[in-house]
Amino acid sequence: MRLYFFLITILFCGLNGTQAYGQSDQSPSRIMLNPLEEGHTGVSVTWRVPMAVNEGVIQYGPAIPNPVVDLSIFESKEADMRIDTVEYNGVTLITKNFRVKIDGLTPGIKYMYRVGNPEDGWSEWIQFDLAVDHPDSSFTFIYLGDPQNDLHSQWSRVLRQAYATVPHAKFLLYAGDLVNKGYNDVEWGDWYKAGGFIHRTVPSIMTPGNHEYTNVILSPLWRTHFTLPENGPEGEEALYGACYYIDYPSVRVISLDGEQIDEDPELRLAQVEWLEAVLEETKQPWTILTLHYPFYSTKPNRDNPKLRKAFKPILDKYNVDLVLQGHDHGYGRGMLDEKGPGNEGTMYVVSVSGPKMYDVGDLDWMQKGGSNLQLYQVLTTDNDVLQYRSYTADGKLYDAFDLQKSSEGNILIEK
Ligand SMILES: [Fe+2]
């Protein structure tokens, strides 16, 4: 019997011993990749650790075809540690996180990285692709409306189908309400579980929705989890990581904080002035705006007139190409200019990826609308054409159009 226990102990310790070289209880979790302000030359990586872990490092470099044996070929950089506190349902949660920005990367190539430290363990080696440094090259990304509910059970298949459709996508764009209760860490755990390796492989651009807010204060877990550019209205800390822009050679992606537009007149005005300045100096051929609340809703009783009154004239003036939104738990899209609906101006889209569904009305602005569908969208810019394709959760094409740039503005081509 003693020999039996001895052998069991050896076996158990042996297995534990292997953890020093791979995953351990101390190793990084919730690893998130976000683009830097210039998305084709840099990324940030954010991850969570147990409180006992005191060091965070990233090792990275161009991806190699061989097994990793010589670590000296990789760059190494210390990450910044941050401790955040969040209150939810009377319980205080304290989390420890690391974040690091790596910039000056070479566009158009594949990189690999891992995060952690030698004592507590490392993540696996993870690969990601950077966009090429040319505005006319084909450039693909994924747009997702509200995930929000039943994230692991019912939303995960949508994200995974989207990734399977275009694994070469250069970013995922989330139009808010990633979770239902933004202060509830358990839901965020579900969001990461649903995404699996995708969130550490494809950089994410996210704008917050009303469900990330409580009493008009953004959940601390937003900035705990994501490291997004702080190039929004100067000095407005409430908008950090919510109102910002990210540049790629062919696209400028601009995020507005919809909840603060709705609730806070001062922060609405700050975003109006900031957006005008940002659009004034935009040089990319394509400009895409994202925010949670729609300019035009898919149901009459969900209208957002404050948003439209403050921002629509700016979108018309600067010919914003596309507005990607959420919140209405249905699908609708239509093109409008200063005169109203038609085939000119800006294309407005509302979509939903999670399982919570609302009815969709029969509204004048919508060229296509639909309800009771979980959807993902694949967008590709290719020289002077932007291809837009919407797919249902089971991977079937649901809606398709192209925007063709011309001297008169965009031409809508239904597919
Ligand atoms: Fe919402």
Q: Can you describe what's shown?
A:
- The protein has 415 residues and is an alpha+beta fold.
- It has helices spanning 2-18, 151-165, 185-195, 220-225, 258-263, 265-280, 305-317, and strands at 29-35, 43-49, 57-62, 75-78, 80-88, 91-102, 110-117, 121-122, 126-129, 139-144, 172-174, 204-206, 213-214, 217-218, 244-247, 251-255, 286-290, 322-325, 331-337, 340-342, 346-350, 368-370, 375-382, 385-392, 397-406, 409-414.
- It folds into 2 domains: 27-129, Immunoglobulin-like (Sandwich), CATH 2.60.40; 139-414, Purple Acid Phosphatase, chain A, domain 2 (4-Layer Sandwich).
- Strands 15, 16, 17, 18, 19, 20, 21 and 22 form an 8-stranded mixed β-sheet that branches.
- A hairpin with a 3-residue loop joins strand 15 and strand 16.
- Helix 2 packs parallel to helix 3 (185-195).
- Fe (ii) ion binds next to loops.
- The site of fe (ii) ion has 6 residues, from loops.
Key words describing this protein structure:
415 residues, alpha+beta, Immunoglobulin-like, Purple Acid Phosphatase, chain A, domain 2, 2 domains, eight-stranded mixed sheet, seven-stranded mixed sheet, 7 helices, 26 strands, disordered N terminus, binds fe (ii) ion
The CATH architecture assignment of the largest domain turns out to be 4-Layer Sandwich
Integer count of domains? 2
Mean pLDDT across the residues is 94
Low-confidence segments, ≥5 residues, pLDDT <50? 1-22
Categorize the overall geometry.
globular
CATH fold name of the largest domain: Purple Acid Phosphatase, chain A, domain 2
Biggest sheet overview: 8 strands, mixed
How much of the residues is beta strand, in percent? 25-35%
From the N-terminal CA to the C-terminal CA, the straight-line distance is 73 Å
Helix vs. strand class? alpha+beta
User: Can you count the beta strands?
Assistant: 26
Oligomer: single chain
Q: So what's the CATH class of the largest domain?
A: Alpha Beta
Determine Rg (CA atoms, Å).
22 Å
CATH superfamily grouping of the largest domain? Metallo-dependent phosphatases
Helix tally? 7
Give the proportion of residues in helices: 10-25%
